Amino acid sequence: MKKLLHIIATPRGSESRTLSVSKAFLDVFKTKYPECEIEELNLFEEKLPDLTVKKVNGKYVLLSGKDLSGDLKESWKEIVSFIERFLYADSYLISTPMWNFSIPYRLKHYIDIILQPKYLFQYTPNGPEGLAKGKKMAIITSRGGDYSAEDFRKFDLQTPYLYTVFNFAGISDIVFVNAQPMDAMGPEIQAKKIKEAQAQAREIAKNF
Ligand SMILES: Cc1cc2nc3c(=O)[nH]c(=O)nc-3n(C[C@H](O)[C@H](O)[C@H](O)COP(=O)(O)O)c2cc1C
Known about the structure:
By secondary structure, the protein is α/β, with parallel strands linked by helices. It has helices at about 15-30, 55-65, 70-75, 75-90, 105-115, 160-170, 185-205; strands at about 5-10, 35-40, 90-95, 120-125, 125-130, 135-140, 175-180. The chain has a single domain (about 5-205), classed as Flavodoxin domain (Rossmann fold, 3-Layer(aba) Sandwich), CATH 3.40.50. The strands form 2 sheets. The chain has a 5-stranded parallel β-sheet, with helices on both faces. The chain has a two-stranded antiparallel ribbon with strand order 4-5. Strand 6 (about 135-140), helix 6 and strand 7 (about 175-180) form a beta-alpha-beta unit. It is globular. The structure holds flavin mononucleotide (FMN). Flavin mononucleotide binds near residues 12, 16, 99 and 100.
């Protein structure tokens, strides 16, 4: 393993429950893989390019199987640099809270930037093919409520969404750790569930 990209999708820094679980993962990961470079991509600090009409037009050129040139190529430089930064890693840690049953808008923005034809997927006669193959991903989330019971699973749009997006991009090795409930049952349950999620995250990091 050469490089882990840690994608942070909470604005709460040291207050973040999600990051307290991710820290447990990273502490073990760093000991186990001391040679692995770790890069942080904080989506609430980084300036993400807007998807203007020109940039969206570029996507349709790529979808038609052609390459970008001239003006469009120029306007895609920033997008390509985010994609290259993503593809350069061979493993990923995503730290994200649940926001409105799914993901924070900055993470959605990032996904809209990097999930591009020619780079992360291509259409073939047999259907779409993901191009980010042979990579691993751990997704650590925390939620105010608890969506683990059968009756509540349907409200969790975060897990299936993130799995679908990154699996579509070719990543088949995706594991989730969810700290829940963080708000609904009071501080004692919160502390207990964070500890449980940290233990789970440490186990995953050992064999990542
Ligand atoms: C804008 C916003 C939307 C939220 N939406 C949900 C939600 O739909 N379901 C839920 O269980 N918790 C929701 N929460 C609560 C967070 O998921 C929870 O507090 C989480 O632990 C925050 O993680 P963090 O401390 O890493 O930022 C929301 C919080 C915010 C700020």
